[in-house]
Sequence to fold (139 residues):
Amino acid sequence: MKNSRKNIPNNRGQSLIEFAFVLPILVIMIGGVFEFGMLFMTNHIVQNACREGVRLAVVLPNLEDDDPRVISRIEELIPDAELFSAFEDGITNNGIYDCEVNDQVTVTISGTYNFNILNIIGIENIVLSIPTTMRYEGC
Fold:
């Protein structure tokens, strides 16, 4: 009886090479999913802070450009983390000086989201600018 194990080719080396080719692509894909999830989470949190800031701004009497009351409210809602540090300096709002019926308040938060994992393939950062507008009710 002949031993059948001698006729089976050894494919372990081939599998290792194929895995070495596929691994970087797999890591970049998983990292991309993670990075875009973080981007969407950051956008959602900043957008919510912008909405809350404009809700406060529309009822404030004597609303000024870049009103510190609005900016401090938004800063309370944006987490104190490295991920959000670029958004702290980009908070603006317009002022209302001649209180008319259809005046609108716009609060804008701008900042740069820096990718960490996707830097490997050349994606460095994306600028987010989130404006929110509501009708002024402080007249």
